[in-house]
Structures are given as C-alpha cells and as structure tokens.
Specification:
Length: about 290
C-alpha cells in the first residue's frame, strides 16, 4: 500500500510540475520572438506560427512528466509495475500533443494583440493619416500596452515597417505576415486590405469597418473563452476525481478492491474498460469545450 501512496504523491507532484511549467511556458511564449529557445539570433525569415520547435530540455522534461503521470495511473488501476512501465511509454508521444497546445496558445496570444493593432490602425486612419504613417506610429502605441519589445505583434509591425523602408510594398509585407500566422482573422484582414489597395477603394473607410468587424469577432471569442473557463476547470476536476477515488479505495480498503486486481476474477479487464471510458470522457469533454466563432 505504500507504493499506492507513493504513486498518488508522484501524480500530485507531477501535476504541480506541469502547472508550474505551463505558467513558465506561457511567459516564454509571450516574450519570445524565436521559434527555438536555444536559438540566440533573430530569425530574419520571421516566426512561423504554425510550427514550434522544442528544445532538447523541453522534450525530455515533457517525456519525464508525462511518463510519471501514466506510470502512476497504470499502478493505480493495475498495481503491476510491468503494466505501469508500458503505460509510462506513452510519455514519448506527449510532446506532440504539447506542441499543438503551445502553437494554439501562441496563436491566441497573437490574435489578442492583433485586436489592439486593429483598434490603433483604425484610429490613425480615421484622423487622416496614411496607412504607411499609421503603421509606423502604431508601434509606439503598442509599446505602451506591451512594454516587452519582443511582443509578437510589435516584432511583426516593426518587421513590416523595415520591409516597407527597404522598398517592399505594404501589401507584400502584410501578406507575408498573414501567411506565417495561419490565423483566420489576420488572413481576412490582409485579403480585404490587399484587394482594397489594388482596386482603389476608400481604403480608410474599409480599414475602419473591417477593423470593427474583426475586433468584435475577437471580443466574442474572448467572452466565450471566459464563460467556458470555469466549465473547463470543473470538467478537469471530474476527470481527475475517479483516479483519486480508486487510489484512496485501494489504500483504505485493499480487500474490497482485491477482485479488481485479480486476473483470475477478470478484474484487470474491468479496470481496462473503466480506464478507456475515462480517457474517452476526457477527449469528449475537451472537444465540447473547444468552441470556435
């Protein structure tokens, strides 16, 4: 039973480690302008927001943390070190899932920053400034909102301004930005801007209306995210609760739980079915909470 307690403690400490690591990673994503944190130079090609290259340290840490969690789960449900070790090998797959999480968080951060960019751009063109001058002045406005000079949107606007100063067109600079982000709102704005610029429409009015529409859409996405945040937390608690209950019963009432660990009585088969149902409920709850506007 001591092993069960150790498994529970390992699971608890591992969850805490994931939480602390997640917070540190969020700060890294907010302040980093590099795809790879081991890279010490500015990426002249620009950040590809569709990709995230994990460093060796990150990959090892994710594999170890996930491996410990799955080992603890395996021991709680089977009380067999061999089965637990086999389940811990799932940790080698976890970095792929983690990459998708980090890419999505980076896109969300960029989208929120892009909303502020739209508001600043709309205000500048409304008072009669040219688009090129507006882009130059927006950087200073954004620096007041985001003191960190490595903020994504500041880095991107400065990069676009440098391309324009070097003789490139603002359309190409904006198209390059949208193609690297793979964010629908940014791509929509870039398409509208390029078409308006080429067809000679009222660019200022089009920018103002487009900025308002896209900005409102992003605000709705934020409101939805706030509303489902509590439900997400509740669903995660419900997903974790069965593992804690099984572990506590195994510790407090080993005789009562013995049939579920006995191969002769088919206990491991029942435990496997229960584990699969719990995994399925986790996947379904995550998909339900993934609301797109």
């Amino acid at each position: 039973m001591i092993i069960v307690i150790v498994a529970i403690l390992l699971g608890a400490f591992t969850w805490l480690g994931f939480y602390i690591y997640d917070k540190k990673q969020d700060k890294h994503l907010e302040s980093s302008e590099y795809v790879d944190e081991n890279t010490s130079y500015r990426n002249i090609e620009g950040i590809d927001y569709k990709l995230y290259m994990m460093s060796t340290r990150e990959r090892i840490l994710n594999v170890l943390l996930a491996g410990i969690i799955f080992y603890a789960i395996g021991f709680i449900f089977y009380q067999n070190h061999i089965v637990s070790f086999v389940l811990s090998l799932v940790g080698f797959i976890y970095p792929r899932y983690r990459k998708k999480q980090l890419i999505e968080k980076r896109k969300q951060e960029l989208t929120l920053q892009f909303k502020q960019f739209l508001y600043s751009l709309s205000s500048s063109v409304t008072v009669g400034k040219s688009v090129e001058n507006a882009f130059r002045e927006i950087v200073e406005d954004l620096k007041m909102l985001y003191p960190d000079p490595n903020t994504y949107i500041i880095h991107e606007i400065e990069r676009m301004n440098r391309k324009i100063e070097n003789g490139d067109t603002i359309e190409n600079a904006l198209l390059d930005f949208s193609s690297r982000t793979d964010v629908e709102d940014i791509a929509s704005f870039a398409d509208v801007f390029i078409i308006s610029k080429r067809t000679g429409g009222d660019l200022n009015e089009i920018i103002r209306k487009t900025s308002t529409i896209i900005g409102d859409k992003i605000e709705i996405q934020q409101e939805i995210a706030i509303m489902v945040a509590q439900k997400k937390f509740e669903s995660r608690i419900l997903n974790i609760a069965p593992f804690i209950i099984v572990a506590l019963l195994s510790f407090s009432s080993p005789d009562y739980m013995y049939p579920l660990y006995s191969l002769k009585e088919g206990g491991p088969i029942i435990m496997t079915i229960a584990l699969l149902l719990l995994i399925s409920s986790f996947i379904i709850s995550e998909r339900i909470m993934r609301i797109k506007v």
